[in-house]
C-alpha cells in the first residue's frame, strides 16, 4: 500500500519505517527541513534503538522516502497518517490541536482521489468529527474516510512495540476502510496482535483511558513506596506480591521518580479537561496528576535530608537525565525540575547521559555535562541514578569516586541494599 506519514517524530518515523519494512511504500513528511535532510543522509534525528538501521535499510531499498512536500506526498498515497504533536496548550490543560488542524487543511487541498485519513496522534474525543468537518469544507464529493488509530508504542522499545503490539485499535464505522486497514495490519495480526474495530470516538478515548490508567498505576506504587520508607518494608516485595495477581499484573508497578515523557503528563491533563467540558469529574485522575506533580518536590526534600540540609557547594552527579532509559526524549522529565532546583540552592551538578548533552541545561549556572560515567562521578558527594540505562547497572563506584564518604541515591532501585552494605557504600533507594 502507499502510505504517507505526516509528522516524522517518534511516532511518524517509527511507524513509517516499520510499515516500509513490512513491504509498503511509505513517504514520511515533515515541515522541519533539517530533519528531512538528516534522514536522507541516513541519520535519525531521534535516539531509538534499532531505528537508524531500519530507516537506512528501507531508504536504500526505496520503500521509505522523506519529503517536506505534503501536497505531493498526500496525492500519491492511499492512506494518510496524521502523526504530529498534540502537546498541552499554553496556560491550559487541553490538548493543542493546532498542528492536527493545520495539517488537515493542507490534506484537504491535496485530496485527488479516495483517501483514508488516519489520526495516529493522540487526540481528544470528537477530534475525528472536527477533522471530517474541515475536510468537508471543500466543495467536492466526499473522497475520504477519517479513522482513529491511536499508537501505543513506548519510546525505547518503539520498534518492538510497533511490530508486536498487544492490540491494534481502529475507530471507524466504514466497512471498506476497516477492511483496508485490517489488511494493512495483517502481518502484525498474524503474529498475535488483537484487532479491535470500534467507533471513532471510542478509539480516541481508549488511548487516553489507557495512558491515564498506566499513569495511575505508577503513581499508586510511588505512594506505596512512600509508606514503605517509613515502615521498613521493601516496595519491590510489594510490587512482586501484587503483580503476581493476574488481575493486577506486574508491569508499571515499579516505584521511581515522577512519571514524565511526552505522553502521560499531557494525556492525563487532556482527559480531565475533556471530562470537565462534559461536566464529569475525573477525580481519581486529578489526584494522580497532583500526586505526580508533588513527587519531584518530595524527592528533592529527600535529597536535602540525605545531605543533612547542606546542599550548597555539594557535587551532585546525575546519571541519566531523560525521562526514561533508551530514549533521548527530555519532555516532562523529572530532571528538568530537580537539576535547576538543586543548582539554584548552590549545588554543583555534573550529569552524564548516554544520549549526550542537553541544550536545556546549558542556561543553568553550575550545571555541566560529562562525556562519560567516569568523569561524571569522579568528584561526586552524591550520585543520583535518575534513569535505568544498562550502562549504569554495574558501575564500580568505589574505584571511580575520589571522595570517601560519597552517597548514592538510586531512584530506579538498580542496586541491592545488601550489595551496597557489603561494599560499605552509603546508599538510598526508593521505597526501601
Ligand atoms: N512519543 C511517543 O512515545 C508517543 C506514543 C504514542 C502516541 N504518541 C502521540 O503521537 C503524536 C506525535 O508524538 P511524537 O512524540 O511523535 O511527536 P514529535 O514531536 O516527536 O513529532 C511531531 C513531528 O510533527 C512535525 N510537524 C508538526 N507540524 C507539522 C506540519 N504542519 N507539517 C508537517 N510536519 C509537522 C514536527 O516537525 C515533528 O517532527 C502525539 O499526539 C503523541 O501524543 C506519542
Determine the strand fraction and express it as a percent band.
Answer: 5-15%
- Overall body shape: globular
- Overall pLDDT, averaged? 97
Please state the CA-atom Rg, rounded to the nearest Å.
23 Å
- Helix and strand content put the structural class at alpha/beta
The strand line-up of the biggest sheet is 3-2-1-4-5-6
What is the number of E strands?
A: 14
Oligomer: single chain
Q: How far is it from the N-terminal to the C-terminal residue, by CA?
A: 53 Å
**Small molecules bound:** nicotinamide-adenine-dinucleotide
Structure description:
The chain is an alpha/beta fold and 432 residues long. Helix content is 42%, strand content 14%. It has 17 helices and 14 strands. The strands form 3 sheets. The chain has a 6-stranded parallel beta sheet, sandwiched between helices. Helix 10 crosses helix 12. The protein is globular and about 75 Å long. The chain starts with a strand and ends with a strand. 43% of the residues are buried. The mean pLDDT is 97. The chain binds nicotinamide-adenine-dinucleotide (NAD). Nicotinamide-adenine-dinucleotide (NAD) binds at residues 6-12, 29-32, 35, 70, 83-86, 99, 102-103, 121-122, 151, 153, 155, 262-263. Nicotinamide-adenine-dinucleotide binds at residues 6-12, 29-32, 35, 70, 83-86, 99, 102-103, 121-122, 151, 153, 155, 262-263.
Amino acid at each position: 500500500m502507499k502510505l504517507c506519514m505526516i509528522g516524522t517524530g517518534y511516532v511518524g518515523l517509527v511507524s513509517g519505517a516499520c510499515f516500509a519494512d513490512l513491504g509498503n511504500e511509505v513517504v514520511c513528511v515533515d515541515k522541519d527541513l533539517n530533519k528531512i535532510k538528516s534522514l536522507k543522509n541516513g541519520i535519525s534525528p531521534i535516539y531509538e534503538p534499532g531505528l537508524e538501521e531500519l530507516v537506512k535499510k528501507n531508504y536504500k531499498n526505496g520503500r521509505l522516502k522523506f519529503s517536506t512536500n505534503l501536497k505531493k506526498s498526500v496525492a500519491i498515497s492511499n492512506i494518510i497518517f496524521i502523526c504530529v504533536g498534540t502537546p498541552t496548550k499554553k496556560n491550559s490543560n487541553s490538548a493543542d490541536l493546532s498542528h492536527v488542524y493545520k495539517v488537515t487543511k493542507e490534506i484537504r487541498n491535496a485530496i485527488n482521489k479516495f483517501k483514508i485519513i488516519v489520526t495516529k496522534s493522540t487526540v481528544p474525543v470528537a477530534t475525528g468529527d472536527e477533522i471530517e468537518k474541515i475536510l468537508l469544507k471543500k466543495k467536492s464529493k466526499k473522497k475520504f474516510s477519517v479513522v482513529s488509530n491511536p499508537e501505543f508504542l513506548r519510546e525505547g522499545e518503539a520498534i518492538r512495540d510497533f511490530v508486536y503490539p498487544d492490540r491494534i485499535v481502529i475507530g471507524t464505522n466504514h466497512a471498506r476502510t476497516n477492511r483496508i486497514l485490517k489488511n494493512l495490519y495483517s502481518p502484525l495480526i498474524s503474529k498475535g496482535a488483537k484487532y479491535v474495530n470500534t467507533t471513532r470516538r471510542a478509539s480516541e478515548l481508549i488511548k487516553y483511558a489507557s495512558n491515564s490508567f498506566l499513569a495511575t498505576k505508577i503513581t499508586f506504587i510511588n505512594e506505596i513506596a512512600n509508606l514503605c520508607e517509613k515502615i521498613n518494608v521493601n516496595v519491590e516485595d510489594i510490587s512482586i506480591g501484587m503483580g503476581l495477581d493476574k488481575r493486577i499484573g506486574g508491569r508499571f508497578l515499579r516505584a521511581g521518580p515522577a512519571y514524565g515523557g511526552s505522553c502521560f503528563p499531557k494525556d492525563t491533563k487532556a482527559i480531565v479537561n475533556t471530562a470537565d467540558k462534559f461536566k464529569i469529574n475525573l477525580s481519581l485522575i486529578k489526584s494522580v496528576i497532583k500526586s505526580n506533580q508533588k513527587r519531584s518536590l518530595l524527592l528533592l526534600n529527600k535529597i536535602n535530608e540525605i545531605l543533612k540540609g547542606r546542599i550548597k557547594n555539594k557535587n551532585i552527579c546525575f546519571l541519566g537525565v531523560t525521562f526514561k532509559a533508551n530514549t533521548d526524549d527530555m519532555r516532562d522529565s523529572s530532571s528538568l525540575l530537580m537539576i535547576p532546583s538543586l543548582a539554584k540552592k548552590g549545588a554543583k551538578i555534573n550529569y552524564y547521559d548516554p544520549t549526550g548533552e542537553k541544550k536545556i541545561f546549558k542556561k543553568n549556572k553550575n550545571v555541566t555535562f560529562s562525556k562519560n560515567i567516569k568523569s561524571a562521578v569522579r568528584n561526586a558527594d552524591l550520585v543520583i541514578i535518575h534513569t535505568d540505562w544498562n550502562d549504569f547497572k554495574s558501575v564500580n563506584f568505589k574505584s571511580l569516586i575520589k571522595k570517601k564518604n560519597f552517597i548514592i541515591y538510586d531512584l530506579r532501585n538498580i542496586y541491592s541494599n545488601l550489595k551496597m552494605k557489603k561494599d560499605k557504600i552509603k546508599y538510598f533507594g526508593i521505597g526501601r
